[in-house]
């Protein structure tokens, strides 16, 4: 995506109205910025990736509160920085597990989106070949793909099984699909 103000504003507005391609565009455009920022702060790839997933999850959940007087990237970095600070505080308090997922009607009513281009590419692959490609992903991405496509669980069911907020599951699945699609495309 071109990061011009008009285009970015348009993408953000489409994302605010629930357009999944707009969410995907924002994730693709700003993933490296947030991940790179966290990699420098945490000096750990797994922590940087986890915080980046949480950043996008929180940002997408609170997108209506974004003030376009500020640069979108700066807003994401601020969220990311605060999440990292929260993580450090939790570690200092020796809190091992965060709160579980609340069993609310909202989670049960979440509708799964129609297949994205990545979903379609994944579904077209031969099962054995697909499993080969999935094994190339990091374990947490393998797990979320397996739960979604092989166990056919909804986002809410995956969130319950992984004990993570549903928005984290959505972002992880989106990222896993993108990475899997890249692995498939690069191998062809």
Automatic annotation (TrEMBL):
Family: Belongs to the sigma-70 factor family. ECF subfamily.
Gene Ontology biological process terms in this record: DNA-templated transcription initiation
Annotated organism of origin: Cerina litoralis
Positions of the RNA polymerase sigma factor 70 region 4 type domain: 130-180
Pfam family, one: Sigma70_r2
GO molecular function: DNA binding; sigma factor activity
Keywords from the named record: Sigma factor, Transcription, Transcription regulation
Name of the protein: Sigma-70 family RNA polymerase sigma factor
Alphabetized InterPro entries for the sequence: RNA_pol_sigma-70-like, RNA_pol_sigma-70_dom, RNA_pol_sigma70_r2, RNA_pol_sigma70_r4_t2, RNA_pol_sigma_r2, RNA_pol_sigma_r3/r4-like, WH-like_DNA-bd_sf
Listed Gene3D superfamilies: 1.10.1740.10, Winged helix-like DNA-binding domain superfamily/Winged helix DNA-binding domain
RNA polymerase sigma-70 region domain segment(s): 34-93
């Amino acid at each position: 995506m071109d990061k011009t103000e008009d285009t970015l504003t348009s993408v953000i507005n489409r994302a605010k109205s629930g357009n999944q391609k707009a969410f995907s565009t924002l994730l693709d455009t700003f993933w490296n910025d947030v991940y790179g920022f966290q990699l420098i702060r945490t000096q750990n790839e797994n922590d940087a990736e986890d915080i980046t997933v949480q950043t996008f999850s929180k940002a997408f959940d609170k997108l209506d509160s974004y003030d376009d007087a500020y640069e979108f990237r700066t807003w994401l970095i601020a969220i990311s920085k605060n999440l990292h600070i929260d993580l450090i505080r939790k570690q200092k308090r020796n809190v091992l597990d965060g709160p579980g997922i609340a069993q609310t009607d909202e989670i049960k009513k979440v509708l799964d989106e129609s297949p994205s281009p990545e979903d379609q590419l994944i579904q077209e692959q031969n099962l054995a070949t697909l499993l080969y490609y999935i094994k190339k992903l990091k374990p947490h991405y393998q797990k979320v793909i397996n739960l979604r496509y092989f166990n056919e669980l909804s986002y809410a069911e995956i969130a319950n099984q992984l004990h993570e907020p549903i928005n984290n599951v959505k972002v992880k699945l989106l990222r896993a699909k993108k990475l899997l699609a890249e692995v498939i495309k690069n191998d062809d």
